[in-house]
Amino acid sequence: MRVAMIGDVVGPPGCEFLRRRLPAFKQANKVDVVVCNGENSAAGNGVLPQSANFLFDSGVDVITGGNHSLRRWEIQEYLDGHPNLLRPANYPASIAGSGFFVLDAGRFRLLVINLAGQVYLDPADSPFVVCDRILEKVKADFTVVDFHAEATGEKMALAYYLDGRVSAVVGTHTHVQTADEVILEKGTGYISDLGMTGPVRSILGTAPEVIVRRMTTRLPVRFNVPDGPCKMEGVLLEFLEKNGKCTKIERFSLK
Question: By the 8 A CB rule, do 96 and 76 touch?
Answer without folding.
Answer: yes
